[in-house]
C-alpha cells in the first residue's frame, strides 16, 4: 500500500467543501437555537438530535480549519485538528444510531420508559467511546498528517503508521460500516410497525366518526423514516469508497470528483439534519416563518417612521394618525 504521495487538494475543492462546512455549521446551530428558544419542542428525540448537532457542529468547524489549511506535514495544530474531527465524527455516528435505537424502542416496543432510560447509556457510549479512542490514538502518536489519502486537506490517522488501517477502522470506519447496517434495519422495522398500525386503525375508521384522517403529518414522517438512512449512506459512502481504494492502492482515490464528493459528504451532516428536522418539520418551519415575517414587519415600520419624521411641515397629529394606521395590519 503506497503511503507516500500527497493527494492534491485544488482551490475549487477547498471552496466547495468550505461552503459545505458553513452550511453544516449554520444548520447545526439552527437546530440548537430552535431547541433553546421554544421550550415546548424539547422532547427527548429532539434532545438527542441536539447532541448529534453539537457533534456535527464541532465536526464542521474542525473540518473547515483542516480544509482551509490543507496540511502538508505534521504539526501541533494538525494533531489537534485531527483529534477534534476524529472525536466529533465518531460521536456523530454513535448519536445517529442512538436516535434510531430510541425511536425503535419507543415506537416498535411501545415503551417510553425503557427508551428514556437509554438516554444515559447513549451519553456514555456516544461521548465516552469516541473520547477514549481519540485520546488513545493521540497518546500512541497515531493522529497526524495523512497526505489527504482518505481526507480532503484535514489530518486524521498518520499515513506512515504501520498499523494505519487498524486505526482508521477504530477511529471511524468500523463505526461507519456498522451504521450502514444498523440504520436501514431499524428504520425499516419502524416503518413496518407504523404501516401495520395504520392498517389496523383503518378497519375501525367507519365506526370512529366521519372526520377524515389527515395524511400530511404521517406522510411526512414516513418520508423522513425513508430518507434518514438513505441520506446518511449517500453522504458517507464517498469516504468509504476512498478508504477501500486506499486498501487496494488504487490511484482513483485521488480523482478530484471523488475527493470533492468525499469532502461534501463528510461535512454536510449538520445541514442535512437541519433540512430534515427543521425546514421539513411543519411546526418549527411555521414558527421560523412567523419570526422572520415579524422581524421584517418591524424593520419596515421603523423605516417608514424614520422617513415620515424627515418630512418637513408635517404636524404631530398627522404623524400620530399615520403611525396608528400603519400599526393596524400588524395587530391583526
Tell me what the structure shows.
The protein has a single domain (11-304), classed as Up-down Bundle (Rhopdopsin 7-helix transmembrane proteins), CATH 1.20.1070.10. 77% of the residues lie in helices and 1% in strands. The chain has helices at residues 11-37, 44-69, 76-108, 112-139, 164-202, 205-208, 216-247, 256-267, 269-279, 282-309, 316-331, and strands spanning 143-144, 156-157. A two-stranded antiparallel sheet has the order 1-2. Helix 1 packs antiparallel against helix 2, helix 5 runs antiparallel to helix 7 and helix 7 packs across helix 8 (256-267). The longest helix is centred in the middle third of the chain and has 39 residues, at 164-202. The chain crosses the membrane at residues 15-36, 48-71, 83-106, 118-145, 165-190, 225-245, 257-280. It is found in: Membrane.
Could you give the topology of this structure?
Layout: H1 11-37, H2 44-69, H3 76-108, H4 112-139, E1 143-144, E2 156-157, H5 164-202, H6 205-208, H7 216-247, H8 256-267, H9 269-279, H10 282-309, H11 316-331
Antiparallel strand pairs: 1-2
Helix pairs in contact: 1-2, 1-8, 1-9, 2-3, 3-4, 3-5, 5-7, 7-8, 10-11
